[in-house]
Amino acid sequence: STSITVGWSDLDTGVEANDTLYYVYAIPGTPTPTFAAVVSTSDAAPAGETHFRKLGYFHNDSSGNIINVSNIREGNASNFIFIEGLDSISSPLVGGDVWQTMPGTQIKFVSSGRPVEIQFEAPLQTDSGTVTPPFRVIVDGTARPSRYVKLFVGSTPTPVSLKHLEVLPPGPHTIAIQWLPTDNYIISHYGGSHPRYLRIEEK
Prior knowledge:
By secondary structure, the protein is mostly beta strands. It is built from no helices and 17 strands. The strands form four sheets. Strands 5, 6, 8, 14, 16 and 17 form a six-stranded antiparallel beta sheet that branches. Strands 7, 10, 11, 12 and 15 form a five-stranded antiparallel beta sheet that branches. A four-stranded antiparallel beta sheet has the order 2-1-3-4, with no helix packed on it. It is elongated. The two termini are 26 Å apart.
């Protein structure tokens, strides 16, 4: 097998940009039959290259951190992204029925047009009695069906899980988990040894 190092010097054009989705391509190397790599913002072809193959992608976030790294789904190459949250989070105490993205649950994902499975799980609890708040998956700003889960006050959190399967059009997508804050109670995840996670896999 052959491994190579890919860096920002391998951009096909321009310089590193934050909050940008990049694609990694294999191109003919020197000497042949080796290969080199080029990084591009184009999902169709790297600038100036005639022969290439798209290998994968990553998101360079608003702070210049590379996240959401995966392969283009082809053959035995899997395309999945897994993120885990160990920090404690709480829903804001506000009314108005305005859905909000749960902190740390947004992924930039590139589909090849196959079925995509979205799985979310988190141990959650409330600060007030027994409540049944809704949660939902959102893809490219469009909500999928909500699921209502009964939560309890106290030291024992309730496992909240969402699972959604659909065929996404080929190309980039933004996938996230949302909750519906209220001014009647707070929903919390206390992290630590009981993480929340979001896993997205193209089948």
